[in-house]
UniProtKB/TrEMBL annotation:
Name of a matching Pfam family: Lipase_GDSL
GO MF: hydrolase activity, acting on ester bonds
Species assigned in the record: Deinandra increscens subsp. villosa
Chief subcellular location: secreted
Protein name: Uncharacterized protein
InterPro entries listed in its UniProt record: GDSL, GDSL_esterase/lipase, SGNH_hydro_sf, SGNH_plant_lipase-like
Origin superkingdom: Eukaryota
Family (UniProt): Belongs to the 'GDSL' lipolytic enzyme family.
Subcellular location: Secreted
GO cellular component: extracellular region
Record key words, sorted: Hydrolase, Lipid degradation, Lipid metabolism, Membrane, Secreted, Signal, Transmembrane, Transmembrane helix
GO terms of biological process kind: lipid catabolic process
Transmembrane segments: 9-27
Amino acid sequence: MASDEQKRWLLLHVIATILALNMILFYEVNADPQVPCYFIFGDSLVDNGNNNRIASLARANYPPYGVDFPDGPTGRFSNGKTVVDTVAELLGFDDYIPAYANVGGSEVLNGVNYASAAAGIRDETGQQLGARISFGGQVNNYKNTVSQVVDILGDEDSAANHLRQCIYSIGLGSNDYLNNYFMPNYYQTSSQYTPQEYASVLIEQYSGLIRDLYGYGARKLVLNGVGQIGCSPNALAQNSQDGTTCVQKINSANQIFNNMLRSLVDSLNRDLPDAKFIYINNYGIFQDIIDSPQSYGFTVTNAGCCGVGKNNGQITCLPGQTPCPNRDEHLFWDAFHPSEAGNVIVGRRSYSAESPSDAYPMDIRQLAQL
């Protein structure tokens, strides 16, 4: 049997271990984020409420959206978290980045989400769905935020020093194909441009707006490639002969755009040496999941949990519709948008690359450390 001295030593050791663990947890929970702020530009993949109060069909502020999100239906086009929610967690933020429509006061110092469902690089993109905030509109909203930051911090130099440390995530282009180029009944772009020409036009406008962000303080920028639109349940239902084979003409056009976007990263890094631009290969990440869904826990990759079908038009989840129970096994939540399970994988690999092709020339984790 242990002596009294041994028992006392063991008790002291246990107490010391518990105190040490508590200190570790305290510092992990209360540690500052890796960057002071996170600014987000994009479309419905990352919209978290900017479309809620505008006259748009592209809205998700009703059940069953948000069924697995703590705050319920917020405007996120997911059953739960989006990709940028996951990245915000990994960057160490203790809350998700608020929507521009809802943010106020000193909150802007932590970052703002400007994303708008149906938005594109081109101003007319998504107009058949009603109001939306194009990339140009989102950049203008950011300029308003910069003015607020200057007012809060007291002068332009202090604001510039704050903003240069922030992460900027830009992810547009999907709707310029989904709700423009491949919608010939509404738009003329497919008759005006070849896929190569159209990608060039998009990249030129995209580049100009990104340079505007640079002119207003952005120095750490993440350019997100377009995912495999041709593999979405909507594209499969509308254009796939067997309902499972991805639509190659759509994916090929997306790849042209992505290749140009990756090249743009090189150009911007060369032209703007005091800034750092990176490219996230969403197309390749989705390819990995589609090629080997079981290894990621997915059993269904060609159908969402609600609102999927040939007759569904532009409406995805119907209000009050009961979604499937096995949501974590579905790559897609609705006809267009990934499930939380899918978003978490993309967010995790964007933050910390699991394959050399996930991010170029570095991942978000490395960008944050610069």
